[in-house]
């Protein structure tokens, strides 16, 4: 069959690439066309537009780039119509994907959504659009299935694809890795400041402000695949900080602790069993709008899944050098770390084990052939 996949950011590129591998396993003659990134391109198929070209974050940024975004929506519809896929697969990225889905369903396309929009966090009214436009929804967080049940919309809980991505990777050799990146034998604190320029600029300077207070540790910035190494150059003035590009999982596998921008990376750090402080700071306008829309007790996936404060969250005005240092001291304490490790183990059990990509691909192929 012909598959068209729509992805909008780095994490979607990772999950999209693993889904593509599973689709090729289920349907070896699959013809796949996609909006995605480098990881998906390595698997095969045809890349139409790279996610880097449309990485806009926050209400203000989206408004500034509205005409560009509308142009992407228009060109996407035209490309789908020209390809005329048997299966249209959306991965996360709701702002863009739900607009395409509404059009696609009206045109009679077979629509599937892998990794639900965060309607459980804000704007639950979008469930109506999802019910009207998405034939099958595949969710990766256990509590999301219960959320949709309240709206009489049956979904498929397939488990979390990060478990596959992490457990299936090849472990780097510690000595080789350290030598390649000029690391010494001190324990490492990883800095994961996000993937978009706006959030990196907002987060990284505060993260770096604590470095001089921890001379017994070395600090490593995990450079995002969506950015060039040159972008990070202004942040590398302290001799005790290194930049390692496109190797976030290797960095986490050797890290003793991490400072992490809210998002998928919080769950990645937890699955690598790295004690972390979760950080978030946006523009004042975007934050004030988000605060009024998002109705959650927590912002990190770790705390949301566990429904309790497993990891410390420093949000907006609480994200300062003083609070960051105090929170980092806590996760470097042996007693605190023991409790975090126990909670991380329980977290992994809740996520449903391995095989999310394979389960999703099987269901997509099965449902599409039945139509």
Overview of the molecule:
There is one protein chain. The protein is α/β, with parallel strands linked by helices and 371 residues long. Helices cover 47% and strands 17% of the residues. It contains 17 helices and 13 strands. A seven-stranded parallel sheet has the order 3-2-1-4-5-6-7, sandwiched between helices. Strands 10-9-8-11-12-13 form a six-stranded parallel sheet, sandwiched between helices. The longest helix has 18 residues, at 66-83. The chain starts with a strand and ends with a helix.
Sequence-ordered SSE layout with sheet pairings:
Layout: E1 2-6, H1 10-26, E2 31-36, H2 38-43, E3 46-50, H3 59-64, H4 66-83, E4 87-91, H5 94-106, E5 111-114, H6 126-133, E6 136-139, H7 142-149, E7 156-157, H8 161-167, H9 174-180, E8 188-192, H10 197-208, E9 218-223, E10 241-245, H11 248-254, E11 255-261, H12 264-271, E12 276-280, H13 284-293, H14 301-306, E13 312-315, H15 321-331, H16 334-350, H17 356-370
Parallel strand pairs: 1-2, 1-4, 2-3, 4-5, 5-6, 6-7, 8-9, 8-11, 9-10, 11-12, 12-13
Helix pairs in contact: 1-17, 4-5, 5-6
């Amino acid at each position: 069959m012909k598959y068209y996949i729509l992805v909008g950011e780095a994490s979607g590129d990772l999950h999209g690439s693993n889904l593509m591998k599973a689709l090729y396993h289920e349907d070896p003659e699959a013809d796949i066309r996609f909006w995605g990134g480098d990881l998906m391109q390595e698997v095969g198929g045809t890349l139409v537009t790279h996610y880097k070209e449309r990485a806009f974050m926050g209400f203000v940024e989206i408004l500034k780039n509205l005409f560009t975004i509308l142009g992407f929506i228009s060109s996407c519809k035209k490309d789908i119509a020209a390809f005329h896929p048997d299966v249209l697969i959306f991965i996360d990225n709701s702002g863009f994907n739900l607009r395409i889905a509404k059009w696609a369903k009206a045109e009679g396309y077979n629509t599937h959504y892998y990794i639900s929009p965060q309607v459980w966090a804000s704007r639950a009214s979008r469930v109506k659009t999802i019910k009207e436009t998405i034939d099958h929804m595949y969710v990766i967080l256990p509590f999301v299935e219960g959320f949709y049940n309240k709206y009489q919309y049956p979904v498929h809980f397939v488990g979390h694809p990060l478990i596959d991505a992490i457990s299936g990777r090849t472990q780097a050799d510690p000595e080789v890795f350290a030598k390649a990146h000029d690391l010494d034998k001190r324990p490492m604190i990883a800095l994961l400041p996000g993937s978009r320029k706006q959030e990196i600029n907002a987060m990284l300077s505060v993260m770096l402000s604590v470095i001089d207070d921890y001379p017994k540790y070395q600090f490593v910035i995990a450079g995002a695949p969506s950015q060039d190494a040159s972008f990070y150059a202004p942040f590398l003035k302290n001799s005790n900080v290194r930049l390692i590009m496109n190797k976030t999982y290797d960095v986490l596998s050797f890290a003793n602790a991490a400072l992490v921008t809210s998002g998928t990376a919080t769950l990645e750090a937890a699955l690598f069993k790295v004690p972390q402080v979760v950080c978030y700071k946006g523009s004042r306008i975007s934050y004030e709008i988000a605060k009024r829309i998002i109705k959650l007790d927590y912002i990190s996936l770790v705390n949301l899944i566990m429904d309790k404060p497993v990891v410390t969250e420093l949000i907006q005005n609480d994200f300062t050098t003083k609070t960051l240092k105090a929170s980092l001291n806590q996760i470097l304490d042996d007693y605190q770390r023991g409790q975090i490790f126990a909670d991380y183990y329980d977290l992994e059990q809740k996520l449903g084990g391995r095989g999310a990509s394979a389960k999703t691909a099987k269901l997509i192929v099965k449902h599409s052939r039945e139509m």
